[in-house]
Amino acid sequence: MRALLRLPVHAPYTLDDMAKDAAGVLDALGIQCAHVVGASMGGMIAQVLAARHPERVATLTSIMSSSGNPSPSVALGSSRALRVLLRPPTRLDTVEGVTEHLMHVFGVIGSPGFRSGRPALRAQLEKVARRGYDRAGSERQLLAILASGDRRALLARITAPTLVIHGADDPLLPVAAGVDTAKHIPGRN
Q1: How confident is the model over 126-161, as pLDDT tens digits?
Q2: Which single residue of 9, 12, 37, 84 could bond 146 by disulfide (Cβ 3.0 to 4.6 Å)?
């Protein structure tokens, strides 16, 4: 609610923290500079990494992501997609329950034009359920995005060659989010 009212949102872990962690992974692997690709929240983290650590990013690809622009026409996807993400799931005490929950979520937020086969999607989501699904972790990720706020000024600092990719029918983030992201990165494609 605070984000919708454009009030500060506080979180123990933000996109900046995650970008620092990404730089730390590069350090641990001995990689000075990398081609960085991120989708959705990963795209937001990649944007922050490219802006705050330009020497570490050779190229940036931001996929189905956003700039944090709070304008409803840019920030809000379909009401159905938002509801499915915000509604507390029911049966998360079994692998089957988690798999069914994820099947429902991905059925709503997945690309309407490129639906993968249900058996293949179910198999992948069952792996996620077996590995461990943490609803509180998903909530912390959403909180990190909201607490990071509007990153448009930060995007102007990106110097790496950048490609922004966004689907026209993305139910979670409207295509306007991709257009807005590209508009705020100098020299983008």
Answers
A1: 998 888 877 778 888 888 988 888 999 999 999 999
A2: 9
Q: Which of 40, 60, 16, 41 is nearest to 159 (CA)?
A: 60
Residue 169 lies in a domain: yes
> Which DSSP string do the residues of 5-38 spell out, in sequence order?
TT-----SS-HHHHHHHHHHHHHHHT-SSEEEEE
Q: Identify the sign of the CA torsion 188, 169, 108, 95.
A: negative
pTM, to two decimals: 0.86
**What's 80's domain CATH number?**
3.40.50.1820
Residue numbers of the domain that contains 49: 15-183
> Does any domain span residue 1?
no
Asked if residue 9 is part of any domain, the answer here is no
- Asked, for residue 108, whether it belongs to a domain, the answer is yes
The tokens describing 57, both together, are 């990013």
Which amino acid appears at position 102 of this protein? L
pLDDT tens digits for range 64-86 = 999 999 887 777 777 888 888 77
Compare 81 and 34 and report the one with higher pLDDT.
Answer: 34
